[in-house]
Amino acid sequence: MTARILVVDDIPANVKLLEVRLLAEYFEVLTASSGIEALETCENGKVDVVLLDVMMPGMDGFEVCRRLKADPATSHIPVVMVTALDQTSDRIRGLNVGADDFLTKPVNDLQLMTRVKSLVRLKALSDELRLRATTTRDIGIEELLGRKPSGDDGRARVLLIDERASSGERIVDHLRDEADVDVQSDPQTGLFEAAEAPYECVLISTAMADFDPLRLCSQLRSLDRTRFLPIMLLADPGDDSLLIRGLELGVNDYLVRPIDRQELIARLRTQVKRKRYNDRLRASVAQTIEMAVTDGLTGLHNRRYLDSHLSTLFDRAVSRRRPLSLMIADLDRFKSINDTFGHDGGDDVLREFARRLRQNVRGIDLACRYGGEEFVVVMPDTDGAIAERVAERIRTQIEATPFRLSRDGAEIAMTVSLGVSTLRRPNDTIADLIKRADIALYEAKSGGRNRVVAKAA
Asked: pTM for the complete prediction?
């Protein structure tokens, strides 16, 4: 696992020690001796994880972390605060300013590496989501990452899996003002509940009599529904090897008993905040992809999607030796609608035509807005004669029922001209198919409009 790690410490010996350890694991290491230098490095270079000393002159680590997390350009970079301080209040302060983890000097090698590797994996996930979002469309990613959605202020929904009733009661009491906690004593039942309900974090006690807690963690990571669900282990003292193995399996965080209430709340907030952040990115990616292939006015697919998907339908028809037909529809004298009733009236007509078009084609048919007042329908497994009948049915319905405008309730009589073509073998191409339908449409328009012309095979 390769990644670029920034080590920030004003003491050269400390920097060198961490650098040697990280280089031995084949990480690329950058260094900074002050808070200002660290901020500049993060802004100007690709950094995957920051190992940040707390006690530095001028600007301490808490302030550096706060600034990194406040800047949309660097807020996604995981920060591990490394310090000689071992007070719970210091850990909580670090977590509250946005730190993703907190390690105490002298740093245990295994804990350091498992923490870094875990955060690198999470960073890689966020980077992939950010990349998809920015490459599908310019969606204002900086504004998305910088704003605070209203959902961030809501109570988290948490699942606690703990066989010991007394332990579970204490955790529920700790989180009473922070989260809605469901408790499950049976690990397998807990697994099913985690997969079925919209939890934002799962807390798993390592004190299980007859079940391996790491097996449960592995199962959660293997299910699609829980693959990205944050997992926190609640461990007993001396469980170091189990915790290290858990982090390698993808556990996000842990606490060691006796559990401090404030630290539990701070670490839970960090995990929930990160989950909501990545959920927003996933939703943004899905929405962006949908917007990229959908016509915003009619809700039909757009020409970009047609250009992509028609190729798939065409190749499938050719390889399977199945019929394929294509229809182009053009609303007659549409310009006069815009001239008389304005673009709002024209938009009403286009939306209503799209609605009627959807009613007259099958789910497997591909209906698209081709541009302006032109629409295309691709009909798999449909020969020319059937496609012509479908086109005639659409023409008849458009002519029979006037279009009502939303602004003043006016009704407009509309007609449509349609051109139909069907796949010819063996040397037909997509361009040929579209061209024949376009020629047929031209003949329908020039022949008096309100008619269907089919270029049969």
From this structure: 0.59
